[in-house]
Design a protein that fits this description.
Layout (H helix, E strand, L loop, with lengths): L3 H4 L11 H27 L3 H26 L14 H25 L3 H24 L7 H32 L4
Length: about 180
Amino acid sequence: MIAWPVATLSNVGAHTGHFALTFAHMVGGTGMLFLGGLNLYLAARNNNFPLHRTIGKAYLAFGAFGAVVAMFVTASPAHKTPGGPILTAISVSLLTLATAWLCFAALGLRAARNRRFQSHSQWMVRSYVLVWSFVFCRIASRFVPMGDDAFIWLSWVGPLLVCEMVLQWPDGARKAQRSRPGV
């Protein structure tokens, strides 16, 4: 588990001055990973709607907390070269990722409140893909020899593009089939 050193408090020294924020981000992110997966399972089974709603609210709370804390950590001098710029390509990418998650989650919540459940489902899938993108980034960065600047963008934009293709493909196929003569 990537967050294990933070969860067990074994790397407090690696996060001097901002460990509390790092720990808070780990709590929010871990909550998102588990609650989001559970909620997608409940939605796919299409049962136990009250539980789905309750877990969804918790997912949004953990997510908003984790994303906002991530923005603070990313926009801080933590893990940056002393005297160097605060906003680097990596920090801008991570700020954009957190902002995208907040936007997708808000759009998903709005769609659910407006009873547009297909749209809600798609926005929440997008938000969950972004949650896992950070995990993918952390794991793959240890194995893939690529520059940090390019990799940090590709680690979440790539999965999001694949997600969008998967979400939109069925609609495009249905429209193409309806437009064929004799079908």
